[in-house]
Every structure is written in C-alpha cells, then in structure tokens.
Amino acid sequence: MEKGNKSPRKRIFGILIIVSIVIGFIIYGAMREQFGLSFLVFFSGVPFLLFTAGAFGLLWPKIKPEGDEVYISHALIIGLLFIVLFFIHVWVLLPLLCPRFAECLAI
C-alpha cells in the first residue's frame, strides 16, 4: 500500500520543479521585456520557492531522520541544500537578470 502513496507524492514534487522551470523560461525568457526589472527581481522568488519545495520533497525520503540522534545531521543536510540553492539563485540567476544588482533594486 505504501508504494501507491509514494508515486503521487513524487509526481507532485516533480511537477513543482517543472512548473518552476516553465515559469522561469516564460517570465525570464520569452516575456522578459514586458515586465519591469524590479518585478523580475522580486518575482524570482516564486520559481525559487517552487523549485526548493520540489527538491526538498523529492529528497525527503532519502534524508528523513530515523531517530533522535540524527536530527542534527538532518538539519545540516537541509541547511546545506537550501544554502546551495540560494547561492545558485543569488549568484547565478539574479546576475543574469541584472548585472548590477544594487542598481536594479533602486526604485
């Protein structure tokens, strides 16, 4: 019975990742000139949120804690995952949107 429950969950998290990538290509590729730069910078959090939720959901069965002694390592792994995804977002994706990021935030 448990195998039937895993498949829909994996599909949902996979769909979240796909939706985040599709939003990224549509908003930041095809429709980039139709939006203001400040909107693009602040809206970039939405695909980031969807992608991190999908990645966390897909990785959860492999890293979920099994006892009290592993909660520290679990927290460190999750923190590492989020910081890597955040650094990719801030140091790779946002500079592609705005090479001079500080000037883009000045409204």
Automatic annotation (TrEMBL):
Record-given protein name: Uncharacterized protein
Domain of life: Bacteria
Organism: Allomuricauda ruestringensis (strain DSM 13258 / CIP 107369 / LMG 19739 / B1) (Muricauda ruestringensis)
Keywords assigned by UniProt, alphabetized: Membrane, Transmembrane, Transmembrane helix
The keyword Transmembrane belongs to this UniProt entry's keyword annotation: yes
TM ranges: 12-31, 37-59, 71-94
